[in-house]
Specification:
Six copies of one chain form a homohexamer. The first copy, chain A, is mostly helical. Chain A is built from eight helices and no strands. In chain A, 76% of the residues lie in helices and 0% in strands. Chain A is globular.
């Protein structure tokens, strides 16, 4: 996880800025800017691919995701980001929406949540939504963990 | 919240005991004891009414709730109790199971989560499961908050 | 359960007749007749109240329930009635539709399924859909069992 | 339905104003105003009770419902209001959220959708989500129809 | 869309015939014929592939889909076909059943609903079922739109 | 089905042993052993692949599945195995969890349930959860039936 340290420092700086902007964001443009900052703070400084792909064909959905979901809701200061991501992972696992769970579990890892903590959410889901939902979630997390290991700096294919 | 202080101290003591018992609980009897300790640590030292009512007519369900759900899952040490309760609240709100959300939101308040933090989970649900699920959850939380205010020590009816 | 014996004999006779009619029912009128026979075979010879209440304001829904759901599907001979009712109870419990679960659990009791067998379905639901769905289902079954005990012949209020 | 005529005329005027405002609403204040206009256009000129009750305890949820759900989404010009309400009724019926279905079915009646058209949505739900969801929806619509008949001008209790 | 004009004319003719048949269809054979006419009126004169594949292994399901779902429900005259398809698209999007949403969105396009109107249904789903359901629906619609562009007459591979 | 006869005999023996063990299993080790016996009795004497893959990365989930879901719930004597599997198939079909439905439908076939009986569960789902859930379930069963035919002894590729 140490490889993410500089990003996490950057994330913290962005979050501080975001929280400050939160009270005053008022126009759609300001809300979109705030949403963009939230995505980058969660996504290692990168834009979110699913969101970018919607922009051309579903412009209102892209704008609503950025201005409302990310800019208004995810930027709220009343809950720390770790708890919010873990709660989102639990909600997506319980409703069987594993593709979205994967995105938010990735964000959680990016901001310092451990793989073990994500597994605990899965164990909890056996109680609240049954074993199949939990097993599906575990399979999705296994994919995510494997993908991140494959693309981690130390695992790059050796250059010739 | 100060009125819960002694209970919270007791809770902490119970949780330490629980975590210690966790590694070694092996027989069904030990698992049931651990589940009972978990309920009391979350429920102000009281047994859980829903669970107690199931004992006679649905004995296996009561035992499974106590030994597996509470004794095995909720007693795990890998996640702090606040995060676990908030994740459970999110999962129940997202799936529209407001009666169970109410129970776990009450546990959350008992162990020191604030009303404001529970509201943030509801705000998050507008994004992950839609406005109707969030509005239903808000109505259930309002009921819970009102019930607890009514039964708080300072609000007792004046004796004649 | 002995008090249902004559009804069960009647039920069997109706089911035989139903199965015989099954292959040849072709017009909407014949399908409606078959649906009516199915309801009475499951409901102690009585019409189904929910269905009757729909007739005036939602005539197509009442007709579709009687001709398709009951006349076409529930009258099929390839599965015994006990298994079909228990499968329906499982499906309704897993999707949280407890009001409909109650109706079909009542039918199941009427045709000789035991309370213990219905409880086993609830225990199964802890695995397939989680503890809250199972606990809700157990509460609904407890209501049903109590209502039937209250109205059983031996429990009638003494006449003066 | 003739009793709603003046309201419908008012509604039309509001909708024209709303559509004109739609392109330029940009600040949160403008979006809230637009949401308020949408509610009144759907709710016979009245504020929405559920929304009003949320304002004190869940201010962000009330604001998000008014600014985003009503102000941004429901005010969009690309779909006529009748179709949008019927689609919302279908979505709520299919997901078993009958309380919200009732609100939107009431809006639909307010803007001139007939009871018969709402019943057709219920019939459709037998196919897309099963008979129990359709039957539940029919029961909720029956309640709504009865409540509106009770409060219609011609049904007022005779004054002495 | 002009390329569908002859088909739409044919569709209209079929619908008129269907509506006329509606009142008198009574035998299973007549209901199946009516269902077949409905499919062809929605599917550019072609049979429905999913339905055809079920005929051999699940004959009752194929018959019930054709006679009940299509012949009884979809052929009803009380709602115009555009509204019915948009309501079905909303119900499928809200319940996360994107494969079925795709089929009905295709039917909607075939009978003259615009891509823009389908997008409005998706925007509505952010409110009624959350952003993930809406985003999934948008991805499915993007696939559908792309497939139809690829197979449109003007986009055929040039013959040598 | 005759090819499974020896396995079914073995299954019966295992089930007798399982039922006997049921009353006294008390330690986690005994519960795991019982779960392992249940899986093998349902899965032609083999371990369950999904379960095995979870053991390394999600050890608690694997243990809970084996000790609780299989060892405690599926081993209970109060319901015959055929009914339990058919009820589980109904619950999974109704909630759209087709991957888990496939596993349990396979178990059902292994213990002597016929393909025709599984189809009847699918027909029932049209009523309780709608046509799309039933059609999805039919497609999954068709896949399962085809896979089993391909790997049946008589269908082996001829050796040279």
């Amino acid at each position: 996880m140490t490889r993410h340290m500089p990003l996490r420092a950057m994330t913290t700086a962005l979050l501080v800025a975001t929280a400050a902007a939160s009270a005053m964001a008022n126009t759609t443009e300001e809300r979109l800017d705030r949403g963009d900052a939230v995505v980058r703070s969660l996504n290692q400084g990168q834009p979110q691919q699913v969101l970018e792909r919607m922009r051309q064909e579903f412009p209102f959905l892209a704008e609503a995701t950025e201005a409302y979901a990310l800019g208004d809701v995810w930027s709220r200061p009343g809950l720390d980001n770790r708890t919010r991501q873990l709660a989102a992972v639990a909600a997506f696992a319980a409703t069987g929406q594993t593709a979205f769970m994967k995105v938010h579990a990735g964000y959680a890892l990016n901001i310092g949540v451990s793989e073990e903590e994500l597994k605990e959410i899965v164990y909890l889901i056996t109680v609240s939504a049954g074993f199949p939902r939990a097993i599906s979630a575990s399979q999705t997390l296994s994919e995510l963990f494997a993908e991140r290991r494959d693309t981690a700096p130390g695992n790059e294919a050796p250059s010739p």
